[in-house]
Amino acid sequence: MTMDEVFETFDWATVIPFDEAATREAALIQRELREDGTPVKTPDVMIGAIARSVGGTVVTRDSDFDHIRNLPVENY
């Protein structure tokens, strides 16, 4: 699939940037995970931080997101 096809397929979606607010959330999440002794992959931390910074919910089959505090997760 080309990038043009990806953008066409998901043209209904809103892209939320990894901005300063998400960066701060990512740092908080990393600290919380260290306190809990729970490793989570960096990309998952970044996605969780974006969602948490905008009050969003992550829809996923990846159970790593269940370890991020105060993050609404819908598993499928």
From TrEMBL:
Name of one Pfam family that matches: PIN
Domain annotation PIN: ranges: 14-69
Cofactor (UniProt): Mg(2+)
Highest taxon listed in the record's lineage: Archaea
GO MF, one example: hydrolase activity
Gene3D superfamilies linked: 5'-nuclease
Entry keywords, A to Z: Hydrolase, Magnesium, Metal-binding, Nuclease
Homology family: Belongs to the PINc/VapC protein family.
The protein's name: PIN domain-containing protein
Species of provenance: Haladaptatus pallidirubidus
